[in-house]
Amino acid sequence: MLKHLHIQNYALISHLDIDFENGFSVLTGETGAGKSIILGALALVLGARADSKAITDGEDKCIIEAEFDDCIIRRELYANGKSRSFVDDSVVTLQELKVLANRLIDIHSQHANLLIENADFQLEVIDAIAQNEALQEKYSSQYDSYTAAVEALLKLQALAKKSQQDSDYIQYRYKLLDEAGLQNGELEELETEQYQLSHAEEIRSALETVVQAINGEQGSAVDALRSCRLDEAAADLQERIDNARIELQDIAEEAERKLNHIEMDPQRLQWVEERMDSLNGLLHKFNAENIGELIKTRDELAEQVNRLDSFDFDIAQAQKEVEIQKAALTKIAQDLTKSRKTVIPQICTTLIDGLKRLGVAHANVDIQLTPTPDFTPKGCDEVQIRFAANLNQSLRNVSEVASGGEISRLMLCVKALIASTKGLPTIIFDEIDTGVSGNIAGQMATIMKEMATHRQIIAITHLPQIAAIGEHHYKVYKTDTDKRTETHISRLTDDERIIEIASMLSGNNPSQEAVSNAKQLLCYH
Question: What are the structural domains of the chain?
Answer without folding.
Answer: 1-109+455-492 (3.40.50.300), 493-525 (no CATH)
